[in-house]
Amino acid sequence: MESLRGKVWRFGKDIDTDLIIAARYLNTSDPEELAKHVMEDADPEFVKKVSAGDIIVAGDNFGCGSSREHAPIALKAAGVAAIIAPSFARIFYRNAFNMGLPIFELKQSDQIGEGDVVSIELDRGVINNESSGKSYEFVPIPPFMLSLLQSGGLMNSIERGA
Fold first, then answer.
1. At what angle do helices 70-77 and 90-99 cross, to 10 degrees?
2. How far apart are CA 47 and CA 36, in angstroms?
3. What would the pLDDT profile of 57-102 be if each residue is shown by its tens digit?
4. Mean pLDDT, the chain, integer
5. Residue 11's domain spans which residues?
6. CATH number at residue 94
7. By three-state DSSP, how is residue 34 classified?
8. Total structural domains in the chain?
9. Bridge partners, 112 (sequence order)
Protein backbone atom coordinates (compact mmCIF):
# COMPACT_ATOMS: atom_id res chain seq x y z
CA MET A 1 0.00 0.00 0.00
CA GLU A 2 2.17 2.81 -1.28
CA SER A 3 -0.48 5.40 -2.13
CA LEU A 4 -4.21 5.93 -2.34
CA ARG A 5 -6.24 8.19 -4.60
CA GLY A 6 -9.93 8.98 -4.59
CA LYS A 7 -12.84 11.37 -4.67
CA VAL A 8 -13.76 13.06 -1.40
CA TRP A 9 -17.03 12.82 0.50
CA ARG A 10 -17.34 15.36 3.35
CA PHE A 11 -18.89 14.87 6.76
CA GLY A 12 -18.87 17.09 9.84
CA LYS A 13 -17.46 16.62 13.30
CA ASP A 14 -18.50 14.06 15.91
CA ILE A 15 -19.63 11.43 13.39
CA ASP A 16 -20.40 8.62 15.79
CA THR A 17 -20.46 4.90 15.12
CA ASP A 18 -24.27 4.94 15.08
CA LEU A 19 -24.16 7.36 12.13
CA ILE A 20 -21.57 5.17 10.41
CA ILE A 21 -23.66 2.00 10.85
CA ALA A 22 -26.90 2.25 12.80
CA ALA A 23 -27.55 -0.18 15.65
CA ARG A 24 -30.62 -1.53 13.83
CA TYR A 25 -28.26 -3.22 11.33
CA LEU A 26 -26.00 -4.88 13.90
CA ASN A 27 -27.84 -8.19 13.72
CA THR A 28 -25.24 -9.21 11.14
CA SER A 29 -21.50 -8.95 10.84
CA ASP A 30 -21.53 -9.71 7.10
CA PRO A 31 -19.47 -6.93 5.49
CA GLU A 32 -21.57 -6.81 2.31
CA GLU A 33 -24.81 -6.43 4.28
CA LEU A 34 -23.31 -3.74 6.50
CA ALA A 35 -21.99 -1.88 3.44
CA LYS A 36 -25.56 -1.47 2.14
CA HIS A 37 -26.33 0.80 5.10
CA VAL A 38 -23.07 2.63 5.77
CA MET A 39 -23.49 6.33 6.63
CA GLU A 40 -27.23 5.96 6.00
CA ASP A 41 -28.30 8.17 8.91
CA ALA A 42 -25.73 10.86 8.06
CA ASP A 43 -26.49 10.84 4.31
CA PRO A 44 -29.25 8.49 3.08
CA GLU A 45 -27.85 8.63 -0.49
CA PHE A 46 -24.21 7.96 0.44
CA VAL A 47 -24.24 4.29 -0.46
CA LYS A 48 -25.60 5.11 -3.94
CA LYS A 49 -22.96 7.80 -4.53
CA VAL A 50 -19.77 6.28 -3.11
CA SER A 51 -17.45 4.35 -5.42
CA ALA A 52 -14.64 1.97 -4.57
CA GLY A 53 -11.55 3.99 -3.73
CA ASP A 54 -13.39 7.09 -2.54
CA ILE A 55 -12.19 8.87 0.59
CA ILE A 56 -14.15 10.35 3.50
CA VAL A 57 -12.94 13.65 4.93
CA ALA A 58 -14.55 14.66 8.20
CA GLY A 59 -14.26 16.96 11.19
CA ASP A 60 -12.92 16.24 14.67
CA ASN A 61 -13.73 13.12 16.66
CA PHE A 62 -14.69 10.79 13.80
CA GLY A 63 -15.90 7.42 15.08
CA CYS A 64 -16.95 8.49 18.57
CA GLY A 65 -19.63 6.55 20.40
CA SER A 66 -19.70 2.81 20.88
CA SER A 67 -16.73 0.56 20.30
CA ARG A 68 -18.38 -1.47 17.54
CA GLU A 69 -16.00 -2.98 14.99
CA HIS A 70 -18.88 -2.96 12.52
CA ALA A 71 -18.17 0.71 11.71
CA PRO A 72 -14.78 0.29 10.00
CA ILE A 73 -15.90 -3.04 8.52
CA ALA A 74 -18.93 -1.36 6.89
CA LEU A 75 -16.86 1.56 5.56
CA LYS A 76 -14.21 -0.71 4.08
CA ALA A 77 -16.80 -3.07 2.56
CA ALA A 78 -18.56 -0.09 0.94
CA GLY A 79 -15.33 0.72 -0.88
CA VAL A 80 -14.13 3.63 1.26
CA ALA A 81 -10.36 3.59 0.76
CA ALA A 82 -9.44 5.91 3.64
CA ILE A 83 -10.70 8.47 6.12
CA ILE A 84 -9.06 11.81 6.80
CA ALA A 85 -9.98 13.84 9.90
CA PRO A 86 -8.26 16.10 12.44
CA SER A 87 -8.92 13.51 15.16
CA PHE A 88 -10.51 10.12 15.70
CA ALA A 89 -12.09 8.51 18.73
CA ARG A 90 -9.35 6.28 20.13
CA ILE A 91 -11.30 3.01 19.97
CA PHE A 92 -12.34 3.72 16.36
CA TYR A 93 -8.71 4.54 15.55
CA ARG A 94 -7.58 1.13 16.76
CA ASN A 95 -10.53 -0.73 15.23
CA ALA A 96 -9.87 0.87 11.85
CA PHE A 97 -6.26 -0.32 11.82
CA ASN A 98 -7.30 -3.75 13.08
CA MET A 99 -9.73 -4.02 10.15
CA GLY A 100 -7.19 -2.68 7.64
CA LEU A 101 -8.98 0.63 7.01
CA PRO A 102 -6.44 3.45 6.56
CA ILE A 103 -7.15 6.59 8.56
CA PHE A 104 -5.11 9.78 8.58
CA GLU A 105 -5.01 12.58 11.11
CA LEU A 106 -4.82 15.92 9.33
CA LYS A 107 -5.50 19.20 11.14
CA GLN A 108 -6.17 20.99 7.81
CA SER A 109 -8.88 18.55 6.71
CA ASP A 110 -11.29 21.51 6.51
CA GLN A 111 -9.31 22.71 3.47
CA ILE A 112 -10.41 19.66 1.47
CA GLY A 113 -13.83 19.97 -0.15
CA GLU A 114 -16.49 17.52 -1.22
CA GLY A 115 -15.74 16.28 -4.72
CA ASP A 116 -12.03 17.12 -4.53
CA VAL A 117 -9.64 14.39 -5.59
CA VAL A 118 -6.89 13.59 -3.12
CA SER A 119 -3.91 11.28 -3.22
CA ILE A 120 -2.22 9.95 -0.12
CA GLU A 121 1.46 9.07 -0.21
CA LEU A 122 2.06 6.76 2.74
CA ASP A 123 5.81 6.59 2.23
CA ARG A 124 6.16 10.39 2.26
CA GLY A 125 3.45 11.13 4.83
CA VAL A 126 1.72 13.54 2.47
CA ILE A 127 -1.86 14.15 1.38
CA ASN A 128 -2.15 15.96 -1.96
CA ASN A 129 -5.35 17.78 -2.85
CA GLU A 130 -5.14 17.40 -6.61
CA SER A 131 -8.13 19.72 -7.06
CA SER A 132 -6.55 22.68 -5.25
CA GLY A 133 -2.87 21.85 -5.77
CA LYS A 134 -2.19 21.99 -2.02
CA SER A 135 -0.24 19.36 -0.08
CA TYR A 136 -0.36 18.55 3.62
CA GLU A 137 1.70 16.40 5.97
CA PHE A 138 -0.43 14.02 8.02
CA VAL A 139 0.35 12.87 11.55
CA PRO A 140 2.80 9.97 11.17
CA ILE A 141 1.33 6.50 11.57
CA PRO A 142 3.19 4.42 14.18
CA PRO A 143 5.24 1.63 12.52
CA PHE A 144 3.20 -1.20 14.08
CA MET A 145 -0.06 0.36 12.89
CA LEU A 146 1.40 0.87 9.42
CA SER A 147 2.36 -2.82 9.32
CA LEU A 148 -1.27 -3.70 10.18
CA LEU A 149 -2.47 -1.64 7.20
CA GLN A 150 0.09 -3.19 4.89
CA SER A 151 -1.08 -6.65 5.99
CA GLY A 152 -4.74 -5.77 5.46
CA GLY A 153 -5.60 -5.77 9.16
CA LEU A 154 -4.82 -7.56 12.40
CA MET A 155 -6.08 -11.02 11.43
CA ASN A 156 -4.09 -11.01 8.19
CA SER A 157 -1.05 -9.82 10.11
CA ILE A 158 -1.40 -12.70 12.59
CA GLU A 159 -1.89 -15.24 9.79
CA ARG A 160 1.29 -14.00 8.11
CA GLY A 161 3.20 -14.18 11.38
CA ALA A 162 4.04 -10.47 11.29
1. 50
2. 6
3. 999 999 999 888 999 999 999 999 999 999 999 999 999 999 999 9
4. 93
5. 3-159
6. 3.20.19.10
7. helix
8. 1
9. none
